[in-house]
Amino acid sequence: MTTLLIHYMAPIMFASLVVVLLLGYPAAFSLAAVGLIYALLGIELGLFQPDFLQALPERIYGVMNNDVLLAIPFFTFMGLILERSGMAEDLLDTIGQLFGTVRGGLAYAVIFVGALLAATTGVVAASVISMGLISLPIMLRYGYDRRVATGVIAASGTLAQIIPPSLVLIVMADQLGRSVGDMYEGAFIPGIVLAGLYAVYVFFVTIFFPKAAPGLPVEAVGFREPNGNRGLTSLAILTAVSAVFAWFVMRNSETHGADFVVLTMFVGIVFAFVVAVINWVISHMTGFRLLSLMAQQVTFAMVPPLFLIFLVLGTIFIGLATPTEGGAMGATGALLLAFFKRRLTWNIVKQATEATAKLSSFVVFILLGARTFSLTFYGVDGHRWVEDLLISLPGGQIGFLIFVNTFVFFLAFFLDFFEIAFIVIPLLAGPAEKLGIDLIWFGVILGVNMQTSFMHPPFGFALFYLRSVAPKESYIDRVTGKRTDGVTTGQIYWGAIPFVAIQVIMVALVIFFPAMVMHYKGLGTGIDPNKVKIEIQLPDIGVPDIGPPPAIEPPKIQ
Fold first, then answer.
1. Which of 40, 98, 182, 555 is 20 to 30 A from 532 via CA?
2. DSSP codes of every residue in 50-84
């Protein structure tokens, strides 16, 4: 037994941790306890050097001294303030009206608003709860299938997991030892593509099951002009003119990739906002309007989130701010937004601060436990065991990625993304780098994969968040006055399954089309440094001729 334990200490240690976690003990204390127990056992068996434990205080201090992790409380606080500022409610109402009688219009609006909230809050709980409270009653009122409605809301809320400024991307970058800014730029396009795949799924649902996602009835569509027109032509013209103006302004700029997209979007929305303000002033002074009510309402609803996106992501992408500084500016922007909407109260600030402190403490304690566990695991050469196991897999890089993603996918049934990021990711980084896999690409792949941890029945946190706000029993709708059936837990679980499949498809797309992520490397000069020849020429400074050295006579000895 002792011989078996000595030879297989690392896998036994990892298996023990999984068993302890499955028993329901808190992750932070489970990690630390398993690490210390096996450290003592390793010392007794001669596998672990006691000197390793002297490094533990330094590792703990390294966690507290990590500036990157400061971005987590900033983005969490920003998301919680925005949840209570009414921005999500304004967006859902406006975008839902924009789609009007189009089948699946409310579902498209939820996906669109989910992507915008993800790019401003970075917090899954805030997005899911906000849209669950606001949009689910409306979708049930107008006859949406409960599985479609709950699935769209939960999946759109989890976009905050992969679209920057995601908290998991911050943790992923820290664990992989890479720049958070690079991780954000790499994840930008996959996040947008994933939102597009959700919309494609809704489109197919409306084609094959039209009754599952009906459009709004005509009488429910507002923002009409006096002549009954909805004013969509005016909105389309404003959008086109703003896009052309932004392109002309930015066409000669030196920005590329995500930088160009964010800055162009910012220029376009500023132009549209200025036009909308001018229209509002003229209409109040003369009664004449340049824009329709719909165009003006959409512009005013879109400005706050897009401004925050630029304030956070734009400043990070163009190098004006670090992720921590961007998070601080985003938190300040969220407070200002709530203030101007007259919804900033002491109670809201207190609740957001307490929730931020709880989440931040949760993250730090898990990280401290993970550092204790990893110290022992590395001390018994567990990292070499993992490295030898993974590098020897058939199929090279693709075989490694398929195995790792399958393993993480099933692990996500039982662990949340923080636990996976702190326990598993550090063990995978070394083998991935030895196989020549770009760690930013690797991190984005795993980020999309771990997004499924929020959607897995029966333990997905997004499903729990939605269950907490979805009506369980039948109720009287406050608008129609009709009795509406509640939503069962089974309907929430069945609604999540198609979106889990879409997320798995997205993982495959990122693996086989790495350019979606690797564009972050093309933001420089585009010159291959390996092909650059450097020649150094020293100027001829003309050394003066000072003649032969003077003769030195030897001393005379008397």
1. 182
2. GGGGGGHHHHHHHHHT-SGGGHHHHHHHHHHHHHH
